[in-house]
Amino acid sequence: MAEAADFQGTSASPARRWLRRAGALLTGAPLLAGLLQLPAAGPAQAASSDTVSVSLDSLSPSAPTDGDTLTVSGTVTNNGKQAVTDAHVGLRVGSQLTTRSEIDSVARHSDELQGSTGSEIDDKYEEKFDTLAPGVAQQFSISVPVDKLDLGEDGVYELGVALSGETSSQGWDQVLGIQRTFLPWQSSEADTKTKTTFLWPLISTVHMTAKTGAGDLQTPEFLDDDLAKELAPGGRLAQMVDLGKDLDVTWVIDPDLLASVDAMAAGNYRIQGADGTSTPGSREHQTVAKQWLAGLQKAVAGKEVVALPFADPDLASLAHSGTSVTGSLSHLKDATDVAATTVKTVLHVTPSTDFAWPVDGAVDPSIMKVATSAGADRVIARSDSLQETAGLSYTPSAPRPVGGGTTAVVADARLSTAFEDDLSKAGSATLAVQRFLAQSLELNTQTDKQRSIVVAPQRMPTASQAQAMAAALKALQGGTWSQAQDLTAAAKDKPDPGATTRIPSRSAYPKSLRRQELPRTAFEQIARTQDKLDKFQVILSDQSRVVTPFGRAINREMSTSWRGRSEAADGYRGGVEAWLDELADQVKLIDKSETKLSGRSATIPVTVQNNLVQPVGHLVLRLTSTMPTRLKIGGKAYYEQPVEVSGGHSQSVKFTTSANANGRVTVIAQLYTEDGLEYGDPVSFDVKVTEVTPTVMLVIGGGVLLLVLAGFRMYTQRKRAAARQAEDDGPDTAGEDPDEPGNPGGPGDRLTKETDSAPGADDPEQPSDPAPDTAPESADPSGTGERVDR
């Protein structure tokens, strides 16, 4: 002790350790020898070996009554290195379990050798094995009349299936492996039966994209072909329909699943490829989809159908991260509105849309507020979230009025989570079924009050989980302590006055679930995509071709199925937004190079291209001059014209311009929606303004030259005519210079008068005067409509 105190945290010397161990062995040797002589010594040592594993593959009937014969079948496997001899499998009935917690405890330690499971029943009901070789599995089957089990009053009993035998190192009969389960025993009809509602969910992951074909059929495009595998015989969804059609359940359906299967059944669907291309879907898968829908229509006929909002939106993610993003709640309302229409169109039944179902039934005040914001007034919660605080000795009924006209329908957590493990092996499935039935019977024996209990299993059970659920339900509905009830009836049932109605705080929401939620950035991207869609749809002549597929894709972006798949969720949202951008870019302005404006006024064409299959309109094209003092558009800084373009065509819109000065001017063309929002990218180009171009100067110069030549010719002709006149006058004018100034009355004076005045009636026009060969030049601006050099 001094050593331990003085040197805490250090080890003793090797010599001292050897002395202590030797002393302990010498002290315990007599006690060990005495224990080896006791009859119970064998099992005590076997408790640490667990040599043999026992699998309980079937137990029939699951809930026996008077006169039944119980048949237990399974497999034993020798996991040790030594052969087991003189082995046999026998049944052991333990004491009655009186609480639901005791059932939980037995289930947690179902294969441990420690503890007692009662004595083995008559050796007439056992199966013997001479030898179990190491690593070898052998099957067994034991049938025993129920009256040989010595069961007492009605209730739940522990049932052990044990293998006993010997090994070469332990040569006495001992229990080498055991598997415990439960035997619900209700010998006759119970005086009060529990009303049980079992939800049967038809929900899948997101499969459809926002893309559709350009034709009238709008061929849908799928992310992959995984949905066909689920619908095919033996697939998960095929099993859900085949099993559910014979059960008294409430069908809880995501309308997106129906829309996706219906799209497959219609044919011509395509599968998205990794390289951006797509391939046609299989005709065989189209047939599978048709058959599945036909089977579902028959299965739900006359049954209650609850429609979740379209694509099963994640209510918790929306409450915790989406409500701070404008417009997020409107998507939930839209998903709720379209849900009933989709189910009624595909299944020809009118569903209930009064229920909201948060993930795992976990609620807090914000989730309750969001869940009821779209019109649902009943929220499916779970008892491990809405826990009892009043100390009731029994499980209360499901409905709880929580204020504001809202009812929380609280599913039982133990029953709802009974089938969440891997049940692909028969042994695991059998244990799950027996545990479910045991909890159900134990719940019924708690009180004489009749209660309404709801079971809300996982959203997407595997095929093996669905099979186990169906087996448990068949036993329950054929049993003596439960009766089936629809979800709506359960929600309307009389609430238990002692049950809690207090919604847990936001801090109580499970962290494991919060880590899987969609982040705020996801809702911001959804809002951005919606804004783009709003702007795009305004210009379309047939908005439904775009609004419907993109509206449903936005609903899918909020799906609960993205939990745990954040990378896939990001990729889906990005794909939707990118496709919308690509479509919107099909309506755009064509780029223009520099434009030369000849003259002081001209027209400038701007081309709008529409590569969509449908016409577009409700657009305005604005052309703006950045220097209106130099160049005006339609007499001002900018001018607008409405635009309508047919599908697959382009249209040029012409703008009248006027130049006030030479030089270069940048002009900006921009499309707007009729409500004044910019649409697409602007197109900028330069206009080179030249008031008088070289070509015009050449034309004017040529005209002036012709006029000069014509005037010179007229002058020379008149001068020659005057000379001839002088000669005709004779000697009267001889020796005189007719051009001499100051010679009054001379010919020069007359000639001057003649040339200074226009020809009149007294001076007839000379035959040699040429007619003008150019039009008179006008100083007025040139008319509009001149060709613009581009």
From TrEMBL:
Keywords: Membrane, Signal, Transmembrane, Transmembrane helix. This is DUF6049 family protein. The chain crosses the membrane at residues 696-715. Residues 490-514, 722-790 are annotated as: Disordered. The keyword Transmembrane helix applies. It comes from Streptomyces cinerochromogenes. Residues 1-46 form the signal peptide. Residues 728-740 have a biased composition (Acidic residues). PROSITE patterns: TONB_DEPENDENT_REC_1 (PS00430). The keyword Chloroplast does not apply.
